[in-house]
Write a structure and sequence with these properties.
Order of helices and strands: EEHHEEEHEEEEEEHEEEHEEEE
Radius of gyration: 19 Å
Number of helices: 5
Distance between the termini: 34 Å
Strand order of the largest sheet: 9-10-11-12-13-15-16-17
Length: 336
């Protein structure tokens, strides 16, 4: 008779091609007064669960997931912690879009037409999402992100393979280094993904070695998450194509929700995007997110922007993952 030492239930969805494995049962009780404390506890005490779900053979090098938790503030409906191949992220826009789709489509929340409001406590802060509901299906999901701002402008770094590169460090829920692909003789196309990964990894390492990142309000967000590489649009309907290389050389298939928020803020604060002007950010596989700046703000000493990002997600499966007591790979393995 089989003996299982772990059972975890998930709903798997994707947003613009980027996966989200949502854990709906099988989590331990997670202590902590806020989401950052809960994330720290999971990292210190139960990282085996993240590895179990993200690593092979149950996941893969570009897998992404979310733990759905009770809220920690009165205004929120849920808490959420995002996971990936390297650890835990500060915010995830494609994840919020997928969560909104799943929670409304599958009846986890009271549904209201034409739009259902769902609020999340995320590590980066409070996130407000709106899910289109026509009485039968959940449609486009929009979310209002935490304030975005340019942390450092015109940061120049030297890379081993691509020479000198210049870009901005921008916070859009996480810190990214924004660069244009033409500097490295590239464009954002699927067939160039290996070179783009190398460019993203080298620039991230160079920026981390050169720039000390400190969020002005929350020290728990003091890390460079990845590099966002943009180019002219390579698919219809977008104002640009971009790809995010994050965590341990992970490639976002979606346009990247936090990255799209940061890009809109970057353009707005540089005078290249007007208030309430619609901008379409395209991904490396041709999916699109819409974004607009809905207000100006301040984040500590920085000028900031309030953004609203929108996109579509799709449900793929419901799963029950088990761990046999004889399984030699309880936390899986990471192989490229």
């Amino acid at each position: 008779m089989l003996s299982y030492t772990r059972t975890v239930q998930t709903i798997d969805a994707h947003t613009g091609g980027e996966p989200l494995r949502i854990v709906v049962s099988g989590l331990p009780q997670v202590p902590g007064a806020n989401i950052l404390q809960k994330r720290a506890w999971l990292k210190e005490n139960r990282d085996d669960l993240r590895q179990f779900l993200m690593n092979e053979p149950r996941g893969h090098a570009d897998m992404y997931g979310a733990y759905l938790l009770p809220p920690v503030t009165p205004e929120a409906d849920f808490g959420v912690i995002f996971i990936h191949n390297e650890g835990y992220s500060d915010m995830c826009g494609h994840g919020i879009i997928a969560l909104g789709k799943v929670l409304v489509e599958m009846g986890y929340v009271e549904r209201t037409a034409p739009s259902t409001r769902i609020c999340f406590d995320a590590p980066a802060g409070f996130i407000e999402a709106f899910v289109e509901w026509d009485g039968t299906r959940a449609g486009r999901v929009s979310f209002r992100n935490v304030p975005a701002f340019i942390y450092r402008r015109d940061v120049v770094v030297d890379t081993p393979s691509f020479g000198r590169v210049q870009g901005d460090i921008v916070f859009g829920g996480a810190f990214y280094y924004y660069i244009n692909a033409a500097q490295a003789g590239l464009t954002v196309k699927p067939e160039l993904v290996r070179q783009l990964i190398q460019l993203g990894a080298e620039t991230k390492a160079a920026v981390k070695a050169q720039v000390a990142i400190r969020h002005p309000l929350e020290p728990g967000l003091d890390s460079l998450y990845g590099t966002i590489i943009d180019s002219e649009p390579n698919f219809p309907g977008a104002d640009q194509s971009n790809v995010c290389i994050f965590a341990d050389r992970e490639v976002d298939r979606s346009p990247t929700g936090t990255g799209t928020s940061g890009r809109a803020a970057q353009l707005f604060l540089r005078g290249q995007l007007a208030l309430d002007q619609h901008y379409v950010n395209g991904s490396i596989v041709g999916s699109n997110f819409g974004v607009r700046v809905i207000g100006a703000t301040r984040v500590g000493e920085f000028d900031g922007a309030l953004t609203e990002v929108s996109g579509h997600a799709h449900i793929m499966s419901t799963n029950q993952w088990v761990l046999e007591d004889s399984d030699p790979f309880p936390t899986g393995f990471f192989l490229r």
